[in-house]
Amino acid sequence: MRNMKKLTDMQIDVLGEIGNIGSGNAATALSELLGHPINIDVPEVIIMDYDNVMEMLGGPEEIISAVLEELSGDLNGIMLFIQEKDFVETVLSSLMQKPIDDFSEMDEMDKSAIVEVGNILMASYMNAVGDMTGLHVDNGVPSHTVNMAGAILTVPLISVAETYDYVVLIRANFLVEDNSVSSNIFMVLDMDSLNKMLDQLGVGMD
Amino acid sequence: MNDDLLLKVGIADMKVAKREQGIVTFALGSCIGVCLYDPVTKVAGMVHIMLAEPGRSSGVDNVAKYATTGVPELINQMVRAGASKSRLVAKIAGGAKMFNMSANSSIGDIGRRNTETVKRVLNEQGIRLIASDCGLDYARTLTLYRESGEARVRSYAHPEKTL
């Protein structure tokens, strides 16, 4: 078992750059979709484990909307597109002309719009990653929930829990409307895939 | 009651309460919170398991991670804290499917397997399961109150339940 907690600075830089290129492509797609300019923060590379997962997004019981896709092909892992209520409100008012005040007001059509936005964003993200690395990745079928952040973020940890008690997470933040409204894309690869991607970019583990 | 007064159980973690007011674990998705309680000595315990059992290749780094190792270890710790194994009763919550994954997904079925395995292990240990709130597609925060042995399940868009 290789210890990925000890990524070198260069590897962290490369992963950050992958996040930058992926989220840049996704931001362009999102901007075209919504007709709003989108800003992105510098992506973060985070080691998420059992101690910090519950506090990652405003506490374990924070209610968020999330679209999940399971990556397969040359890379295996999970992508999560996570939206706070304000972001969902912005998306639904520009796409569906339907402002909402609360997640409970979302009907099936609203949910399907959010799933589609997530699907487009995550596909744009992975296309850019694929171009950069020369690896082919399938994004899988998107699945959506509105629920507690702690349970949603635990999903990537559970997917590797038999072997590892942490994941390496690339987090990109999208900002709309004077930067007051944000959403996140989390890319989590299994350890073999993370190694493969770093190898492909010339900064593999020894 | 304020959560600040309660012992907190993290992911793949367990706690035993002898004096504290209770024990809480937050946002169980496919994970399961197993509460054990001795109504006579009022010793209460909780474990937050992630998976049914260790894989063949992996060693057990953390017993609280798995149903097959976590439940027996919680029983041991509670007996050491003054509980009688024969009096222990169990209440469980969690085991949900947070995302509707495709059939060949590695993570889609974990909640159901966790629930089945916890029930089997409790049965093997001779511990009576008196209440359970498992499955479906939403997260649960589980609190066990030591004085009464009452367990409460808090979730989003569903009323609070008392087990």
Please describe what this structure looks like.
The complex is a heterodimer of chains A (206) and B (163). In chain A, α1 crosses α3 (108-133). Chain A has one domain: Chemotaxis protein chec. Chain A contains five helices and eight strands, in the order αββββααββαββα. In chain A, strands 1, 2, 3, 4, 5, 6, 7 and 8 form an eight-stranded antiparallel sheet that branches. The two termini of chain A are 13 Å apart. In chain A, a hairpin with a 4-residue loop joins β7 (166-176) and β8 (181-189). By secondary structure, chain A is an alpha+beta fold. Chain B has helices at residues 67-80, 110-124, and strands at 7-8, 13-17, 22-28, 32-38, 43-49, 89-94, 128-134, 140-145, 151-155, 158-162. In chain B, α2 (110-124) links the parallel β6 (89-94) and β7. The mean pLDDT of chain B is 93. In chain B, the strands form two sheets. Chain B has a five-stranded mixed sheet, with no helix packed on it. A five-stranded mixed sheet of chain B has the order 2-5-4-6-7, covered by helices on one side. The radius of gyration of chain B is 15 Å and the shape is globular. Chain B has a single domain (3-162), classed as 60s Ribosomal Protein L30, Chain: A, CATH 3.30.1330.200. In chain B, α1 packs across α2. With 163 residues, chain B is an alpha+beta fold. Chains A and B meet through β3, β6 and α4 of A and β3 of B.
Short description:
Chain A has 206 residues and is an alpha+beta fold.
